[in-house]
Amino acid sequence: MADAPAETPEEDIFEQKAVRLDKRERLIAERQDAAGGAYPVQVPITTTITAVREEFGELEAGTETGQTAGVAGRIVFSRNTGKLCFASLQAGDGTRIQAMVSLASVGDESLARWKELVDLGDHVFISGEIISSRRGELSIMVAEWQIAAKAVMPLPNLHNELNEETRVRQRYLDLIVRDKARETVIARAKTNASLRETFAHHAFTEVETPMLQVQPGGATARPFVTHSNAFDTELFMRIAPELYLKRAVVGGIDRVFEINRNFRNEGADSTHSPEFAMLEAYQAYSDYNGIADLTQELIQNAAIAVAGSTIVTWADGTEYDLGGQWDRLSMYPSLSEAAGVTVTPETSMEDLLALADTAGVEVPPHATHGKLVEELWEHFVKEHLTRPTFVMDFPVDTSPLVREHRSVPGVVEKWDLYVRGFELATGYSELVDPVIQRERFVEQAKLADRGDAEAMRIDEDFLRALEHGMPPTGGMGMGIDRLLMAITGLGIRETILFPLVK
C-alpha cells in the first residue's frame, strides 16, 4: 500500500475517500452491535507503544520475548506481501512500533481482512508477542487486531514537507506527520509548567481574571468589541489582565500571576497575533529592578526545562545564550549615543521631528514626545542588541500606568526586555497613587478624543480600588508565544497551536 502523493489531486482524494467510506460500511455490516457504528467504543490495550519501546527497545535482532502486549496507534506506513504484512503504528508522541501480520499467526481470513480494510491513517489495535525482527526492528507479531477508527481521508506523504499554509490551517496533519510540531506542543507545556514552578517557589498565587470586560484597560491597544444579550451592554475582549490583577494586590494577594489569553484587534505578522497567551505577575514591595530579576529567572528556568540548558538551539541551527546576567541600558542615553545627538526628556518635538526626518523614521499618527522617542530608539538601537537586554526608563507619556522615576525627571520606571530582536516582556514599578493615576487617565482620554484608538479610558472602578491603598509593587507582562519563539527560534504561527488565519 503506497503513501499518498504530496499534492494529491482533488479527484484522487474524492476517489480514495469513496473507497474508504465503502470500507467503513463493511465494518458497520460486520459489527454485531451495528447500532454502535463502525468503530468500537474501546479496545483492550494493555500498554502503550512508548512503554514497549522503553522496555524492549534494545532487543537484539531475531529475539522473541514470550511476552505479549496490546497497543493501539495510527498506521503511518504499510507494506503488504503474500503471507506477511508490515505496518508502522505511531503513538500520539510520535513513537512507533512495527506490526507484523502473518498468515501463520492470524490465519487466512484475518490476513485477507487486514489487506482489504486497513489504510494509511487508520487507528488500529494489535495484540501479540513482542519480538525483534530479523532486521532488528522492534515489532509485535500480531495475533489479534481490529480497526479502532478509520481515516476516510488519505494522509499526506510523510516523506514530503507540508507547506506552511497546510501546517497552519490543518494543524492536526502537521502534528501527525511532523515531529517538530509535536515537540513544539510539548515545549510549550514544559514552559508553562516551569513558569508555574518558579512562581510557586517564590510564593505567588495564580488567579483568573475576566476575559469579557465592561471597559478595556491595562494596555494601549485596540480592543475587540462584542455585545451581551443577557446584560444588553457592550463588552470588550480583554487586552490585558493588569487592572484586575492590581485589584487583587489591593485586596491583599501580594504576589499574584495569571497565564491566559489576550485579544487585540490589531495587525498580524511574524511576532504578533490578534489572540495570544500572556503572563502577567505583580509582587508587592518590589519594583522594576526586582521584577526584572524574577523575569530573568523565569525565562532561564523555562529554557532549561525545554532545552536542558540556558544555551538554546533555534530551528535554523543557531545557538543563543540566555544564561548569565542580562544587560540593562537606559533608553535616552542609548538613543543619544547611537544617534550622535543628545536626546533627553526635555528635547522639543521640533528637534525630535528633525532627527526623525534626517534618519528617515516614519512619524507615528498622534505622535507625542514619548512615541517619537520610542520610534527613534527602535530605529537607532534595537537592531544592534544581540544579548537579552532590559531597556530601562521610558518616556512618561507612553506609560500611563507606571511610577515616575525616583531620581531621573521626565521618565518612568519601566523596562522592555528584548530577545532575538523583538520585545519579549515589559516590567514596571507600578503607579499606585490614585491621584496621579487619574491625571494620567485624563491625558489618555485627551488622546482618545484626538482619534487615538489605542489610548486608555478613565476607569473609575479601578481608581476606586487604588483609593483603598495599593502597596509599592513591581509588575511584569510576557507573551507566552514569544517566550517559545525565544527558546525555539520559531515564528509565532508555529508556537501557537491553532493560530487565527484568514
TrEMBL record:
Cofactor entry:
Mg(2+)
Q: Where does Mg(2+) 1 bind?
A: 416, 423
Q: Does the keyword Lipid metabolism apply?
A: no
Residues annotated as binding Mg(2+) 2? 423
User: How many cofactors are bound and how?
Assistant: Binds 3 Mg(2+) ions per subunit.
Q: Which UniProt keywords apply?
A: Aminoacyl-tRNA synthetase, ATP-binding, Cytoplasm, Ligase, Magnesium, Metal-binding, Nucleotide-binding, Protein biosynthesis
Whichever gene encodes this chain, its name is lysS
Which PROSITE patterns does the protein's record reference? AA_TRNA_LIGASE_II (PS50862)
* Protein name per UniProt: Lysine--tRNA ligase
Lineage, opening ranks = Bacteria, Bacillati, Actinomycetota, Actinomycetes, Micrococcales
What domain of life does the UniProt record list for this protein's source?
Answer: Bacteria
Subcellular localization, as worded in the UniProt entry: Cytoplasm
Question: Which reactions does this protein catalyse?
Answer: tRNA(Lys) + L-lysine + ATP = L-lysyl-tRNA(Lys) + AMP + diphosphate
Q: Which InterPro entries match?
A: Aa-tRNA-synt_II (IPR004364), aa-tRNA-synth_II (IPR006195), aa-tRNA-synth_II/BPL/LPL (IPR045864), Lys-tRNA-ligase_II (IPR002313), Lys-tRNA-ligase_II_N (IPR044136), Lys-tRNA-synth_II_C (IPR018149), NA-bd_OB-fold (IPR012340), NA-bd_OB_tRNA (IPR004365)
Q: What is its EC number?
A: 6.1.1.6
